[in-house]
Amino acid sequence: MYLASEGLRTAAMAIGMLCLPLAVVVCVAVPDQLRDRRLRRRGVQADAVCVERIRTGSVVVTAIRCEFQPQTGGTVRVTVNSPVIPPEVGQALRVVYDPQDPKTASTTLRLHSNESRKTYIQQAVLVVLVATAVVLALLS
């Protein structure tokens, strides 16, 4: 009985150790998740023009700086995550922006992709791992 209890305790600790880095990833992603949720609810679509491709290193385009005109008028310049196939400078793309804060924007492709929903999956995995660790700790 003691060995089984010790094994459960060890398993609970191991799962708990796995939860820590996942919790950090989930917490870091929450602001983007909340922004995307807000944009899905009340966002307004607009045509934007790519004015700059932002690269990591020398090859991979990770972000796009673009300009668009919100309904209120004027021109807004924002930086959004790059779609899988980034537009060339001068090429059009669709963005969704918050009418209360036009600087808060994202591409329509990102909002409707699995990329913007992966945090929900990470949160579900974290909940399952924490629940498992708690149950194992209580059984030990």
TrEMBL record:
Keywords: Membrane, Transmembrane, Transmembrane helix. The chain crosses the membrane at residues 12-31, 120-139. This is DUF3592 domain-containing protein. It comes from Streptomyces solincola.
